Amino acid sequence: MSKVASVILSKTVRSFDKVYSYIIPESFWNEIFIGARVIVPFGKNNRSLEAFVIEIIDDFQISKLSYKVKEIKKILKDVPSINIDLLRLSLWMKKRYICTYYETIKCMIPPGSAINTYKYVKLINYSINEVYEDMEREVIDILKEYNGILEYDEVENKSNQKNVKDTIEKLIKRNIIMIEEEYSAKIKEKKQKFVFLKEDKEKVFEDIENNKFKRIQQIKALELLIDVNYILQSDLIKYLGISKSTIDTLKNKNYINIEKLEVKRDPFRENDVEKTNNLILNNDQRIVFKDVSEDIKKDVFCESIIHGITGSGKTEVYLQIIQEVISLDKSAIVLVPEISLTPQMVNRFRSRFENEVAVLHSGLSLGERYDQWKSIKKGEIKIVIGARSAVFAPVENLGIIIIDEEHESSYKSDSNPRYHVREIARQRCKMSKAYLLMGSATPSIESYYRANTGKTKLFQLKKRANEMDLPKVFLADMRRELEIGNRSMFSEKLESEIRENIKRKEQTILFVNRRGHSSFVLCRECGEKIDCKYCNITMTYHLDNDRLICHYCGYTKRSPKTCPKCNSKKIKQFGTGTQKVVEVLKNKFPDSKIIRMDSDVTSYKNSHQKILEEFIDSKIDILVGTQMIAKGHDFPTVTLVGVLSADGLLETGDFRATEKTFQLLTQVSGRAGRGDLKGRSVIQSYNVENYSIQAAKLHDYEKFYNQEILLREKLNYPPFLGIVMVNMTGIDDNKVLEIISYIKNIVSEKANEGKNNISVNGPVRSPISKIRDRFRWRIIIKYDNLNYIVSLLSCINDWYYKKFKKTDIKLNIDINPYNML
Questions:
Q1: Which of 434, 380, 440 is nearest to 411 (CA)?
Q2: Pairing mode, if any, of strands 383-386 and 398-404?
Q3: In this structure, which long-range contacts are made by residues 244-247, counting pairs with CB atoms below 8 Å and at least 24 apart in sequence?
Q4: CB of 308 closer than 8 Å to CB of 453
């Protein structure tokens, strides 16, 4: 009888997306576990590949199998493994999101920790007296040139032989060379050299007094070590101005030791915060706190949503609930929608819980994320804060997951696996019997509908925590501005309010829905627009480097001075981006300090935090930005918010356009008046009558929801039916259309079978019909049975892969998409 492990490979290639069986050598029986990472021989050439153990089968009868089962080669002990709960979650995700095993597994491990195998050829028994063939001699000479060891691929590259592998095999059989393998991840623990005092302190002091040391550098080093016991070698050299040879001399005389120790890469190392205490909760906050705290103690899955207006104190409720979770020796995960929100949230939590907080998001270096992940896995950290991927944090004894600003579209992944954080958090809390708490001033229609139908408990926070009123919202009709001759990007109302704020030395936020300088470049002579050569989309003009950039594929070129079609000089930038707004503001208010925040200026590490810190310190008068400034931030001295164009949000062709418009306008307006000063907001639009804009003016979520839910029901949109977007791309436009039409016919045939409510629309060209020189077609499916549609689309996905895996045709299936472009 044998022990066998079921494993999945660390390969995204779909042909390897299977469960494989490997014998567990008896020497590994006490070391292997479910979730372990191992090295296995794979394929005809027995390539060494990384794999994850998903099941261990005891007393397996190998003799009953008709094929030979290979053995696991190695257990990888010094790399992150996966706990059983996360492994179960990954297997659930594979089915739910129609993706590969490894696409889900890689969500569970820190980036950069995937294992690479390095294969070396090593010379072990060479003798000048032995007879070698010419081809053998060549391989031996190559190895001798590199001190007897070289990577296998390099030996092949440097050899003139066609079949050098055969020669290597001959030399292995003759025991002249051997093959060694090393397994390494891109990111590892960071280790640095520390200097320790080895000799007794009194003995060292005595030797100094007796003039046994002739160099002052040696005495300085020893005196410091007497005080501190140990220090980083680099710090010792830096602070004392001594040389490496001084340290080597003391080591040779046995006064000191040098050891390599692991050093934690700390993202908070330059960010001190002051300790804070719990604030007094108002009556509405106390109701939430008491109810949630009691449910957490029951050790059963519960779910609720806090609908709290902007500034209502949701974060303070989160803090005090988590304090209860920690007191029960449980862990908490807190999710925020954007990296830009993380620094403020982390500081709030660290000021309350100090070193019990870890952070996970893509703004950290790989090393920082790895060390934070390890601290969480070891149980050293009980509170994890981060963006979307933090939902997979390896916490033990999970007590609660909190999703702040739960309505945000950034919680939906736009690459495989195409999950939504709400779904993952709900599934994970069910598995762990934990509490799922969501919060928003503008809940998603789906979440609020769940609350209204009793599937989610609903809490209301209808007052601001500081008792201040919500900002007064003014609508500026830009059609009226044109009638009175105002062709500026600023309405008279917004410009006068900005001037008033500058005079009062109060801060202003201006929201613009597009980065760059101008939306497009147009020839006024012939009407030619400058489109991307690879995508069916206009290019955006960026003033900083006078270039046009495609925000979909990254293609860029110099902005033309004449029209490429008619050679006219009447070519001009049109539309408004963040750069242009800043340019106009500097002309209008030359003495004001203005800063911009969008993805063009926040691509480097900690850039979000530095901009926000500068703004919070009141060094900036006006902050201009895209959606990253519109939510979650708490700026006490901001009293004015301006929205330059609400119309662009409505004109996306997305069924969620009005919902996104209401949410964004309400959220950005809510940045004003959060301190002791009253706030106001000016929303500019050419369509002020739209019900989402009217509801945002009144901060009236119920009014918006009641109208929106009627439209959703009438049109069979979520939450009444689910939606799947099946998107197909390829270089051959006709071929793409042919294949997606066939898929549409299959779904339509199945739709007529049984009692499932399924409808199929399309195929039609995607709104952006070509990206990166690939044509794009899609079909939209509406369904009422999730399990059935997942099963059907899984079969279609398998059919597509078998038939088109070697072609350029790509199929993407997105269940309940958030990006309809």
A1: 440
A2: unpaired
A3: 246/215, 246/217, 246/218, 246/221, 247/195, 247/221
A4: no
Residue 699 main-chain phi, psi, to 5 deg:
55, 40
Instruction: Decide which of 745 and 578 is more confident.
Output: 745
* Strands (DSSP E) found in 187-317: 190-197, 230-232, 256-263, 302-308
Query: Is residue 129 over pLDDT 60?
Result: yes
In degrees to the nearest 10, what's the CA dihedral of 347, 351, 354, 357?
Answer: -40
Residue 674 corresponds to which tokens in the numbers above?
Answer: 């959060």
Measured distance CA(170)–CA(154) in Å, rounded? 18
Residues in the chain: 821
Spatial contact of 621 and 636, defined as CB atoms under 8 Å apart: no
- Going by C-alpha positions, the residue among 768, 758, 765, 761 that lies closest to residue 819 is 768
In this structure, of 325-334, 514-523, 527-536, 686-695, the range with the lowest mean pLDDT score is 514-523
Pick from 78, 83, 79: which is nearest to 35 by CA? 83
Per the listing, tokens 């999950």 go with 419
Residues 25-81: tens digit of each pLDDT: 999 999 999 999 999 999 888 888 899 999 998 877 776 666 788 999 999 988 888
Task: Write out the two tokens for 304.
Answer: 């609720």
**∠586-592-597 over CA atoms, to 5°?**
70
* Contact predicate 4/53, CB 8 Å: no
Are 638 and 672 in contact by the 8 Å Cβ rule? The answer is yes
Residue 342: HSE in the Cβ half-sphere, 13 Å Cα cutoff: 26
Handedness of CA 37, 43, 46, 48 (dihedral sign): negative
Q: What predicted TM-score, i.e. pTM, was given to this entire model?
A: 0.83
Nearest to 373 by CA among 607, 157, 108, 35: 108
The two three-digit tokens of residue 707, written as one number? 């109208």
Stated as kind and residue range, the H or E segment containing 685 is strand 680-685
pLDDT > 90 in the chain, percent? 52
For 412-437, write each residue's pLDDT tens digit.
998 999 999 999 999 999 999 999 99
Whole-number average pLDDT of the chain? 88
